[in-house]
């Protein structure tokens, strides 16, 4: 199949994550042979109650189609990814979006959840905690900052992914979202790498 977006035609679909989550992710190739990641948002796989609890961009509207919500999700993800990329954050380079589809740079790496050992857990812990704080200092909270949404390459360089849950630091639940992101990282590092630190950011640390 072929998806046509503003940047041109992309073909050669190979699914790398399909059917389980509210997204499908494919590896696609441009006519010139350059590979990208294609993310299709499919919020119909998520119950409406769970969606209301996790995402706020529906603005409490009662009557919404799943396609409409999926398009909003894709638009929000692309907008945040573009803004973060332009400000030097470690995120995939956004290429384009159309309807419920987002095309982005293909990251060569592994989700942190698949990495069994780290050469320096302390350094990696500090890096990801600093990323949480840097986001907040730019007025944003990821909202789903965990081992599934951090990609690690062979040089231990971290790339952050998945932005539809992102909220502003002025959100009425901002402190709760911030603390949850921090707790997810602390719990994962303690369980997976047996690394615990008394040093961790709090919402009050935001400048």
Describe this structure in words.
The protein has 4 helices and 11 strands, in the order ββββααβββαββββα. The chain has helices at 48-54, 66-86, 121-137, 174-192; strands at residues 3-5, 8-17, 23-29, 35-41, 94-98, 101-105, 110-111, 140-141, 150-152, 158-160, 167-168. The strands form 3 sheets. A 6-stranded antiparallel sheet has the order 1-2-3-4-6-5, with helices on one face. It has a 3-stranded antiparallel sheet with strand order 7-9-10, with no helix packed on it. A two-stranded antiparallel ribbon has the order 8-11. α3 (121-137) packs antiparallel against α4 (174-192). Residues 1-10 have low confidence and may be disordered.
Distinctive features:
207 residues; alpha+beta; Phosphorylase Kinase, domain 1; Transferase(Phosphotransferase), domain 1; six-stranded antiparallel beta sheet; 4 helices
């Amino acid at each position: 199949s072929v998806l046509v977006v503003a940047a041109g035609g992309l073909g050669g679909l190979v699914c790398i994550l399909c059917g389980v989550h509210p997204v499908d992710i494919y590896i696609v190739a441009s006519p010139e042979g350059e590979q990208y990641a294609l993310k299709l948002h499919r919020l119909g796989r998520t119950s409406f109650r769970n969606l209301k609890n996790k995402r706020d961009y529906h603005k409490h509207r009662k009557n919404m189609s799943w396609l409409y919500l999926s398009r909003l999700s894709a638009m929000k993800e692309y907008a945040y990814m573009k803004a973060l990329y332009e400000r030097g954050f470690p995120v995939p380079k956004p290429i384009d979006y159309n309807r419920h589809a987002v095309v982005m740079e293909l990251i060569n790496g592994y989700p942190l959840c698949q990495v069994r050992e780290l050469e320096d857990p302390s350094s990696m812990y500090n890096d990801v905690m600093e990323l949480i704080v840097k986001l907040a200092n730019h007025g944003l909270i990821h909202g789903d900052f965990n081992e599934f949404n951090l990609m690690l390459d062979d040089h231990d360089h971290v790339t952050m992914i998945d932005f539809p849950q992102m909220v502003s630091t002025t959100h009425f639940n901002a402190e709760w979202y911030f603390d949850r992101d921090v707790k997810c990282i602390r719990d994962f590092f303690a369980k997976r790498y047996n690394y615990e630190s008394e040093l961790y950011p709090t919402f009050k640390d935001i400048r």
